[in-house]
Amino acid sequence: MKRVLTILFFVTFIMVLAPPCHAAVNGEIAVSLVDIPAELQERSVLVTLGSGPNDTDAVLVTLNGLNQHSQTVTLPEGTYYCNAAVQYDALNDWPLREVDGTTFLQVEAGGQYELQYEFAGESYIEGKQ
What we know:
- The chain is of the alpha+beta class.
- The protein is built from two helices and eight strands; from the N terminus they run H-E-E-E-E-E-E-E-E-H.
- The strands form two sheets. It has a four-stranded mixed beta sheet, with no helix packed on it.
- A hairpin with an 8-residue loop joins strand 2 and strand 3.
- The longest helix is centred in the N-terminal third of the chain and has 16 residues, at 2-17.
- The chain is elongated, with a radius of gyration of 23 Å.
- The mean pLDDT is 82.
């Protein structure tokens, strides 16, 4: 009986002294595309959320007709560089911009954010015809 009480005492003592462990809480980011030109309804837009333009570990969000050009992702706290481009648009012919002008997003634990991208004008080629 003394052994059991001694073990219980030490377990309780360790639990009291041990620092509490908290799970990392992420922020939630809703990414969407608005006012899509008819000729791009079937195309995909790639949005990257990372530490900078050359971040190879950036989170990639694909917006297309399959997800109604909208997707929500969760990311840990931090500052994220936000960029979007039309997939397979080697000439960057369809420029995109974030509606509120967000380039860097500060994500806090439990925060909810919204990034909306729109086309920044007509295609260069369309404008020349």
